[in-house]
């Protein structure tokens, strides 16, 4: 890969300091995973606002970095072996950053894979299911009269929340110590409020999950990461 300043994305989102990690994102549940991780790990970075509009995510500049036209994506000028690294998919970015810094991924191989297991739980379950629930509750899917699509995701969201409720019965954080697993999962729990579905999924019937989300949202790095980059860049 060429230097950041030579990358096509720099024509639209120019790097002020190409020596630090470049984040291209928007404050969605997936987007804030990376900004929160960067804040927690203390890595210097520069955040660029890439909106969800086709004009941004389907632009030639952004597609040159992520052909899947989704945020977040990064360019790390100091990647493996000192070479620049382009990376997308929020779960992959979280694992990369944790391994790069040696933070929030445990201290033993067993702890590492326990954490990665719960990151995959979010990537394969919580994110897709909660996102579809949001679509059928708040966005265009809410206009569909057939109740079955929405109910499918209501049921699955309740099931996933029950898994977390049980997991958090005897611990503050999902995989033991605070980790990238929490950074992956908790922003999606917060999204249930944005989607207006907390009552629908029985949020008030839970005990451990709401307390867990409160602990997460109280962290200073989380407060900063949730609004980084700003919605208007």
Automatic annotation (TrEMBL):
Q: Which Pfam families match?
A: GST_C_2 (PF13410), GST_N (PF02798)
Q: Where is the GST C-terminal domain?
A: 108-233
Which residues, by range, are in coiled-coil regions?
A: none
From which domain of life does this come?
A: Bacteria
The GST N-terminal domain, residue ranges = 18-105
Question: Which SUPFAM superfamilies does this UniProt record tie to the protein?
Answer: GST C-terminal domain-like (SSF47616), Thioredoxin-like (SSF52833)
Q: Which CDD domains match?
A: GST_C_Ure2p_like, GST_N_Ure2p_like
PANTHER family for this protein: DISULFIDE-BOND OXIDOREDUCTASE YFCG (PTHR44051:SF19), GLUTATHIONE S-TRANSFERASE-RELATED (PTHR44051)
For this entry, the protein name equals Glutathione S-transferase N-terminal domain-containing protein
Organism the protein comes from: Gymnodinialimonas phycosphaerae
């Amino acid at each position: 890969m060429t230097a950041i300043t030579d990358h096509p994305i720099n024509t639209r989102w120019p790097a002020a300091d190409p020596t630090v990690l470049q984040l291209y994102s928007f404050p969605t549940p997936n987007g804030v995973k990376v900004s929160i991780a960067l804040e927690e790990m203390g890595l210097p970075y520069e955040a660029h606002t890439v909106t969800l509009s086709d004009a941004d995510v389907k632009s030639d500049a952004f597609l040159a970095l992520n052909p899947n036209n989704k945020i977040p994506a990064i360019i790390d000028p100091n990647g493996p072996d000192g070479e620049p690294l382009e990376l997308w998919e929020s779960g992959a970015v979280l694992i990369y950053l944790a391994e790069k810094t040696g933070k929030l991924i445990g201290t033993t191989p067993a702890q590492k894979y326990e954490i990665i297991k719960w990151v995959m739980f979010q990537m394969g379950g919580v994110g897709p299911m909660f996102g579809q629930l949001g679509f059928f509750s708040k966005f265009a899917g809410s206009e569909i009269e057939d109740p079955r699509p929405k109910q499918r995701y209501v049921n699955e969201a309740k099931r996933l929340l029950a898994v977390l409720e049980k997991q958090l019965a005897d611990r503050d954080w999902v995989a033991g110590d605070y980790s990238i697993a929490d950074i992956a999962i908790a922003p999606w729990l917060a999204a249930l409020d944005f989607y207006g579905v907390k009552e629908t999924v029985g949020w008030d019937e839970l005990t451990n999950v709401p307390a867990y989300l409160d602990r997460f949202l109280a962290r200073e790095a989380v407060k900063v990461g949730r609004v980084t980059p700003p919605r208007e860049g």
